[in-house]
Automatic annotation (TrEMBL):
BP GO terms, sorted: molybdate ion transport
UniProt KW keywords: Molybdenum
Ligase among keywords: no
Organism expressing this protein natively: Cylindrospermopsis raciborskii CENA302
InterPro entries linked: Mo/tungstate-bd_C_term_dom, Mop_domain, Transp-assoc_OB_typ1
Domain Mop, first and last residues per copy: 69-135
Full protein name: Transporter
Length: 136
């Protein structure tokens, strides 16, 4: 039974998630409550950064963290082969499949924010309203 200043938190998990938690509890010799409390308290370390950001740009300008949905249907996974950084724009080349490369020019700030580095995985997201096919 919780104390007056405490409350219950109930949430659903999959069978797999529950097994992971139970195994972790068994290995660490701690209860589920202890593990979950520790995780929640760890979130507090990140909170000052979020609140500082909120003060600087205003809460209404912060996008909520949720899965990104795209209207583009052409999403190709690849490996970054080259990153050519300029003052304003950066050229990023992805190898989609063996010897097939796509190159995109994005802002240097975007490339830095995405931490694009040669050898890491990234996605080419292609949106086109008009595709022209030509033949000799």
């Amino acid at each position: 039974m919780p104390r007056k200043e405490q409350g219950w938190v109930t949430f659903q998990t999959s069978e797999e998630e529950r097994k992971i938690l139970e195994q972790f509890c068994e290995q660490s010799q701690r209860s589920k409550t202890e593990i979950l409390r520790e995780l929640v308290r760890g979130l507090n370390q990140r909170a000052p950064q979020v609140s500082e950001l909120t003060e600087q740009i205003g809460e209404e300008n912060i996008a909520p963290k949720k899965p990104l949905k795209l209207s583009s249907r052409n999403i190709l996974k690849g490996v970054i082969k080259r990153v050519t950084t300029g003052k304003v724009n950066t050229e990023v080349t992805l190898e989609i499949i063996h010897r097939v490369e796509l190159t995109s020019i994005i802002t240097t700030i975007s490339a830095q924010d995405l931490e694009l580095v040669k050898g890491t995985e990234a996605y080419a997201v292609i949106k086109s309203n008009d595709i022209v096919i030509a033949k000799d």
